[in-house]
Design goal:
This protein is α+β, with helices and mostly antiparallel strands and 118 residues long. It has two domains: 29 residues; 85 residues, mini-chromosome maintenance (MCM) complex, domain 2, CATH 2.60.320. Helices cover 30% and strands 36% of the residues. The strands form two sheets. Strands 2-1-7-6 form a four-stranded antiparallel sheet, with no helix packed on it. Strands 3-4-5 form a three-stranded antiparallel sheet. The protein is elongated and about 70 Å long. It starts with a helix and ends with a helix. Bound molecules: zinc ion. Zinc ion binds next to helix 2.
Length: 118
């Protein structure tokens, strides 16, 4: 192997690693909005910039969640499994909290870079 080839290989490796890191940071990109999906349909959308508590009365029951400091967590729900309440707070793009019994999905969306891509 010539010295030139080694340098070339190192460059390719560096670019590959850089790309991987770039993708990783993108995965953890902060979202800018919360989409509330009920039964697979968009029910409501909220900005993550504003702290607020939202109570939803659905056919299946009731869910209360809170938007605070750009993250979202389920405060309470009257579903039997309580998985949504036990779920950790979400804040990154594409993270979700699902309440299966109520067919409710809270999904983080947005982030400025994402909008440029779309
Ligand atoms: Zn639930």
């Amino acid at each position: 192997m010539k010295k030139k080839d080694v340098i070339l290989a190192a460059c390719i490796l560096a670019i590959a690693l850089g790309g991987l890191l770039f993708m990783k940071t993108r995965d953890h990109q902060k979202g800018s909005a919360l989409n509330v999906m009920v039964d697979g349909e968009l029910y409501a959308s909220y900005s993550l910039d504003e702290d607020r508590t939202i109570r939803l009365s659905l056919d299946g029951g009731e869910n209360t969640f809170r938007i605070e400091n750009g993250s979202v967590r389920m405060l309470s729900a009257d579903c039997p499994d309580q998985y949504c309440v036990e779920h950790a707070a979400i804040s990154a793009d594409h993270e979700t909290i699902v309440c299966l019994p109520h067919r409710l999905v809270l999904e983080i969306r947005g982030g400025e870079e994402k909008d440029v891509d779309a």
